[in-house]
Amino acid sequence: MLVIQVKEGDNIERALKKYKRKFEKTKVLRELRARQAFTKPSVINREANKKAVYVEGLRRAEGEA
User: Fold this and answer.
1) In terms of residue numbers, what domain contains 23?
2) How many CB atoms lie under 10 A from the CB of residue 29?
3) Is 4 a domain residue?
4) How many domains are there within the chain?
5) Cα(49)–Cα(58) distance, rounded to whole angstroms?
6) Is a pLDDT exceeding 90 seen at residue 64?
7) Is 28 contained in some domain?
8) pLDDT of residue 17
9) Is residue 1 part of a domain?
10) pTM for the predicted model, two decimal places
């Protein structure tokens, strides 16, 4: 459960903004979407390898420039 400290006289929009920011940091929505459908471990590993190759390519290109 998220707890947001709201000072007296604080604007409701500011409190909502704090709540949304804190909610984003907990990554609840990302986990819910991931749990909607089962992903095989081999697919997860393949995605991780593709990401690693992509990031490595970016690092190498940055080093050449």
Assistant:
1) 12-64
2) 10
3) no
4) 1
5) 14
6) no
7) yes
8) 92
9) no
10) 0.53
| 8 A C-beta contact, residue 2 and residue 22 | yes
Q: Which is nearest to 4 in space by CA: 14, 13, 15, 12? A: 15
Count Cβ atoms below 10 Å from residue 18 Cβ, excluding itself: 15
CB 23 within 8 A of CB 2: yes
Convert the chain into a string of H (helix), E (strand) and C (coil): CCCCCCCCCCCHHHHHHHHHHHHHHHCHHHHHHHHCCCCCHHHHHHHHHHHHHHHHHHHHHHHHC
- Length in residues, the chain: 65
Give Cα separations from 9 to 2, 20, 22 (angstroms): 21, 19, 21
Please give the pLDDT value at position 10. Answer: 84
25's tokens: 């940091």
Q: How far apart are alpha carbons 13 and 22 in whole angstroms?
A: 14
